[in-house]
Design goal:
heterodimer, A: 184 residues, mainly beta, six-stranded antiparallel sheet, 15 strands, elongated, B: 186 residues, 48% strand
Chain lengths: 184, 186
């Protein structure tokens, strides 16, 4: 088997392209072997299917699910994407719930990435404000943690009105978090 | 033009990286030219804009297929397939007319396997792939699949009312619905 040991690859033509001929492919054996600006470097997926409703009646936010990723570079962006296959107000009620995204780095303090000011400012009503009956829910956030340490996310939600039961995921339905590292 | 033929490339120094020079790109001429763990190896999309409603008055609990299916041929049997299905405009009014979707998969033209069974009881995917009671709105469904094959993997989505015969629109005419399938190296 022939093997090339190199540090730099550059094009031999003015097109700046290095061509992989048809039916030739590059196969890596390491995780996240292809890195560079604009490329998807890695993707993590966490999901959960609980045997009881994931619900709250509280206006204090509670965590639905956690997820973590180790970016390969501090400059990378992380696309956080939460989804639930069935979220809404208990008993088919249109109870309002609000979502919040928290992040911590290297097990430090949790930072509320989407602060809910309830006033005219960024994320006035949190990461997402949901006023509807049962339906699917998908909420994205493009994060810049500026770290190549362990980056953890907590997906939180709260009932807007105390005592109203809101469900972030109905029992035996699926919710999950997709984390995608995008090179910059 | 110079051509290098080699079976293997490895880094020369200890940092593990091979640098691609500034403004230089590696272009693959075949689909899925870049493969490996954690890599988005290929992505295929399918979409359609129906000229008549899928659904309408007097919809029932009988299960029907969306006309548009999707397919992908994984490059590796260990790959994960991220299945995304979306509608552009769907409608259900109340609890009695909730609509559900279910996801099925088949390999190499074999029998369909139900990936998200809707038993209504305490079991996985109690109400199928998703359960929806809303006025006009889009729906997006996600599923992480491990088909464990390099054969042709096809997916279809079915639709039905959950419990009653009433008006439901699973997809409005003149609006787009479709699929995105992503193969991720594991």
């Amino acid at each position: 088997m022939s093997q090339l040991s190199i540090t730099n690859l550059s094009s031999g033509t003015q097109s700046n392209e290095i061509i992989l001929p048809a039916n030739t492919y590059l196969q890596s054996s390491s995780f996240s072997a292809y890195r560079g600006p604009g490329s998807i470097i890695q993707r993590k997926y966490y999901y959960e299917m609980t045997t009881a409703d994931k619900s709250t009646t509280s206006t204090s936010s509670v965590t639905a699910i956690y997820a973590s990723i180790n970016p390969t570079r501090a400059s990378s962006k992380i696309l956080v994407r939460f989804h639930s296959s069935m979220a809404g107000g208990s008993g088919n009620n249109r109870y309002v719930f609000q979502m919040e995204l928290y992040r911590r780095i290297n097990a430090g303090n949790w930072l509320l990435v989407t602060p809910r000011a309830e006033a005219a400012s960024r994320y006035q009503y949190g990461w997402s404000y949901v006023n509807r009956s049962w339906a699917r829910l998908t909420v994205p956030y493009l994060d810049s943690p500026e770290s190549d340490g362990t980056v953890e996310y907590a997906i939180n939600w709260r009932s807007r009105t105390s005592g109203q039961t809101t469900v972030i995921c109905y029992r035996y339905m699926e919710m999950g978090v997709e984390l995608t590292e995008i090179g910059q | 033009m110079s051509t290098v033929k080699t079976k293997s490339i490895q880094y020369r120094f200890s940092n593990g990286g091979i640098q691609i020079g500034g403004d230089t790109i590696i272009r693959g001429l075949s689909q899925s030219s870049f493969r490996g763990p954690g890599k988005l190896i290929q992505k295929v999309t399918f979409s359609d804009i129906p000229t008549s409603h899928i659904g309408g008055a007097s919809q029932t609990t009988t299960e029907y297929d969306f006309p548009l299916m999707s397919a992908i041929t994984p490059t590796s049997a260990t790959s994960e397939i991220r299945v995304k299905f979306h509608t552009g405009m769907s409608y259900a009014t109340n609890a009695t007319s909730a609509i559900i979707f279910k996801l099925y998969r088949r390999i190499d033209g074999g029998s369909w396997t139900e990936l998200t069974p809707a038993t209504g009881g305490d079991s996985r995917f109690r109400f199928g792939w998703m359960y929806h009671i809303e006025s006009w709105s889009p729906i997006e469904c996600l599923y992480s699949d491990l088909p464990q094959t390099t054969g042709l993997v096809e997916y279809k989505t079915t639709y039905r009312n959950w419990a009653a015969t009433t008006t439901s629109y699973f997809q409005h005419l003149g609006q787009e619905y479709g699929w995105t399938l992503e193969e991720h190296g594991v």
